[in-house]
Write a structure and sequence with these properties.
The complex is a heterodimer of chains A (about 350) and B (about 250). With about 350 residues, chain A is of the alpha/beta class. Chain A contains nine helices and 18 strands. In chain A, α1 packs parallel to α3. Chain B is mostly helical. Chain B has 13 helices and four strands. Classes of the chains: A alpha/beta (about 350), B mainly alpha (about 250).
């Protein structure tokens, strides 16, 4: 009988799911998060209603936090990080920054992502004009109950532009990946804006719309057909201001004409960067990163959740842009892999 | 700088001045040709709503510009300028001037409905074409089309008697579209009728032309329909920001 706990790093949807799965199997888990509370991006960043359930983040992910908090099999250590990690599968020793030593069977990295910082695309006005905001800020406007208002003077905007692919699919800033969720999240936010202030017209500037799978109907089609959100095929060149309103410049590719359209608010649909701590995590845990900077997976099919280091597993957005529900599923997969020391090899596992 | 996309420049947007001096610089003549800006500087959200308020235009907001309608279009195969996808886009953005450039071909839709069955989003492009042609007439951009004249004569006939009086509808149509009744095919048709029909029948037809038969109890029904039609007209006129009751 194995009695050492599974070390889980990161208390977002993936980590919470892994901790719950481990505890539900009758095993012990130690859940470490550098923030002072659990919940990850949906809680720490104040997301509003989640895709695809439309449940509020504080209820849905908050419920996962409570479930883990109340489980005696899970030891939660917030406000600290893993400083060193040594040993072999079945017998790892992790030292936390607060001095605690954890003797662990295996480790799961559920370390998530970092939102793209829009300051890295200065031509789109973030940081220059107060009414240029990010999708995360709009989530916060909705979840805080303050509603959709221009930060500059608190007015309700007549017209909002959402720019897709901010920090994604852009070789200029070294981010060649599609962040996968921003199209759907933007369509969701657009519908929320239309519901909160029906007089606000919402335009989405896109290169491609990637509301994959069933999100097509629930988000893309619904936003057009019911919420009357308009989609314009253009990658915006720059966001400036005429002193009163923002001015969005670009080319409307469908009519081959330049556009300079006034807007009250511009929203950047920011992408998912690799966690800013990934270099440190890579060094501490001895796991490889892929060419984009996410935690590398050892194999695609046979060994889901395995990293390049036997006994260390990974799940959720630590591996690349990921949805909340898929992160939760991967958390469970990683828990099973960690408890069975999958991929370690029979000889090592038997020790 | 050389001009890369000459096809995008319309002749009327090229401007030369016989004598013009700007800030002391002589910019007269061909060597100082100006090109008017093609930049779209604002969206007019009202235009889509106006088309959507007319019968057939209700689903225009669903369009995602795939081009299936234009690809399927019977008229487009003959005239490449007939482009439903493009017009739907112009309407949705409110590019009225651009749409008006094509006002004399939009009505040419033959209602074959190939687009209706090709459209993946049920935009009903054929309906949008109808609504757009209707919009152009209501706004006074185009004169009443022959089909509008026909519809009006047809509607008047029904409202008056509850019956479709073919002869009257035909005469009204020819009169309003400025066509002579003395059409060879019509003369042949009437001649054939006179020759072959029993006399009693012909007398009844003649009688009916003078003393128009009515559907029984038509007065009340006709009034109810008339009221409904005028309500719809008023709604449409209001949606289009028109004072007068127009249209059909």
């Amino acid at each position: 009988m194995r009695d050492k706990p599974i070390l889980i790093v990161g208390g977002g949807p993936a980590g919470l799911s892994a901790a719950h799965a481990v505890a539900a199997s009758g095993r012990k888990a130690v859940l470490v998060d550098k923030a002072d509370r659990l919940g990850g991006a949906p809680i720490l960043q104040g997301y509003a209603k989640l895709v695809p359930s439309h449940e509020w983040a504080k209820d849905a992910i908050g419920g996962m936090v409570d479930r883990v908090r109340q489980n005696p099999n899970v030891t939660v250590r917030t406000g600290t990080e893993v400083q060193s990690f040594a040993g072999n599968p079945g017998d790892f020793v992790a030292t936390l920054k607060d001095g605690t030593r954890v003797n662990a069977e295996a480790a799961i990295l559920a370390t998530g992502f970092t939102h793209f910082d829009s300051l890295n695309k200065p031509e789109w006005g973030f940081g220059t004009y107060p009414d240029v905001v990010t999708t995360v800020q709009v989530e916060q406007m909705i979840s805080s109950g303050q509603g959709i208002r221009c930060p500059s003077d608190g007015r309700v905007p007549d017209r909002v532009a959402i720019l897709l692919c901010v920090g994604s699919r852009d070789r200029q800033i070294g981010r060649e990946w599609c962040s996968k969720i921003c199209c759907t999240v933007s369509a969701n936010i657009a519908m929320e804006i239309r519901e909160l202030s029906p007089k606000t017209n919402v335009y989405i500037y896109y290169m491609d719309i990637r509301t994959f799978g069933l999100y097509e109907g629930e988000y893309y089609w619904k936003s057009q057909e019911e919420a009357r959100v308009k989609y314009i095929k253009a990658r915006i060149a720059e966001v400036t201001s005429d002193g009163k309103r923002l001015v969005v410049k670009g080319e409307d590719t469908l009519v081959k004409r330049p556009i300079t359209i006034p807007f009250d608010m511009v929203v950047h649909a920011i992408g998912m960067d690799p966690n800013v701590d990934n270099m440190t995590l890579s060094a501490v845990f001895g796991v490889g990163l892929n060419r984009y900077g996410y935690v590398d997976k050892a194999s695609t099919y046979a060994g889901l959740a395995q990293t390049s280091r036997p006994g260390v597993y990974v799940c959720g957005a630590a591996t690349g842009p990921e949805t909340i529900d898929d992160s939760i599923a991967q958390g469970q997969a990683a828990a099973v892999a960690a408890m069975t020391l999958a991929g370690v090899g029979l000889a090592q596992a038997a020790e | 700088m050389p001009i890369h996309e000459k096809s995008l420049i319309r002749p009327e947007n090229l401007i030369t001045n016989d004598s013009l001096v700007i800030d002391g610089v002589d910019v007269s003549g061909h060597w100082s040709t100006f090109i008017k800006s093609r930049t779209i500087t604002d969206y007019n959200e009202a235009m889509e709503d106006e088309i959507a308020a007319l019968p057939g235009g209700e689903n225009i907001h669903r369009c995602w510009q795939c081009g299936s309608c234009t690809n399927a279009c019977t008229v487009n195969a003959v005239n490449p300028d007939f482009n439903p996808r493009y017009w739907i886009y112009l309407i949705r953005q409110g590019l009225e001037e651009e749409l008006l450039r094509d006002k004399d071909i939009i009505w040419q839709c033959v209602s074959c409905n190939k687009c209706t069955y090709a459209c993946p989003r049920d935009v009903l492009p054929e309906g949008v074409m109808k609504a757009t042609a209707h919009w152009l007439e209501l706004k006074g951009h185009t004169p009443k089309s022959p089909s509008t004249h026909f519809d009006e004569g047809f509607t008047e006939s029904i409202l008056a008697t509850g019956k479709i009086e073919e002869g009257r509808v035909l005469r009204t149509f020819f009169q309003r579209t400025g066509q002579p009744l003395n059409q060879p095919w019509l003369v042949a048709l009437v001649g054939g009728l006179v020759k072959r029909f029993p006399l009693g029948y012909l007398i009844r037809m003649g009688w009916s032309t003078v003393f128009r038969p009515r559907t029984s109890n038509w007065r009340r029904t006709g009034r109810a329909i008339e009221e409904y039609v005028s309500e719809r007209r008023a709604e449409q006129a209001k949606a289009l920001g028109l004072d007068t009751k127009g249209g059909h």
